[in-house]
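Hi all, long-time lurker, first post. I run a small reading group and we've been trying to get comfortable going from sequence to structure in the token notation. Rather than ask abstract questions, I figured I'd post a concrete chain and ask someone more experienced to write out its structure so we can walk through it together at our next meeting. Sequence below, copied exactly:
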Amino acid sequence: MNAITLIGIDIGKHTFHVHGQDAKGHAVLRRQFNRTHLLRALANLPACTVVMESCAGAHWLARQIQALGHSVKLIAPQYVKPFVQGNKNDFRDAQAICEAASRPSMRFVAIKTVEQQTLSATHRLRDALVSQRTVAINQVHGFLLEFGIALPATKTALQRLPGVIDDPALPLRLRAVLLRLHAHIQSLTQEIQAIEAELVAQVKADDAGQRLLSIPGIGPITASALAANAGDASQFRSGRDFAASLGLVPRQYSTGGRANLLGISKRGNKHVRRLLVQGARAVMQHAERRTDGLGVWIRQLLQRRHSNVVACALANKLARIAWAVLTKHSCYAARPAMS
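-- Answer (accepted) --
Happy to help. Here is the structure in token form:
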């Protein structure tokens, strides 16, 4: 059997389909393994390049295979799909992964560390709790509105809820339901605050997090999310590539030599993108007070474009600045306005 140079693995929950090929692209390995036997089989193979789709469990498995001496690469699933030949099955998926990895222009996903994955899981938990709290708050507003009580759509309105519940016009059983919802909201708020305190403490102890905090519009939560998503950002060639990975560049639909730019592509991590846009809006609210080049740029852009467009453009700029801060190991320094 010819020497295996490239292995594609189609990842499943319990089974893994492996396709191996030699330097000429000829198939020399085609086997199915369970989770127990996969690493054992790879340990008995000579060092080669192993490629997988970037999906659930891929980063953990990549670190395990790297420890065996293999070179591991991850590919985004949307780049593998065009290379599937004929009808789809698991072995052809593994073969398509090898075909995609053989392209010289293929882009790969950086393998996340244990710390990055843990930090990312913490952010997903916080995001889920915030969503649950929003659902509970909306239920309170909806239930009260059914009985003619309209609370303002503000956070402070919930502070009036205990007094509203004591309204004798409300049925006793509805009061019990509202009290349960109020207790649930308070419990969720406490959990969210505990997670945020943990994230703030992690950012304070991290050098990259402290440097990210020097950027306008980036607070502890955004800095923590950027550190979890980008790491040291060295896998991106430029700040534009990093902003594009977050979906903050225009989506293009061009043909016949005519360029047609649409809205932002919205690719990548939507949680980080949302945080950057929110930070950009915070900077825009106080743009009049800024005397540096960034403030002048924001004010001039607001005179020509809608505030939503400016927010996305500023979020793009913040992402590029974050890339420069992470890759150059420096802090953000505001540039003076051009006279």
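A couple of things your group might point at:
Residues 172-205 form the longest helix (34 residues).
Residues 207-328 form one domain.
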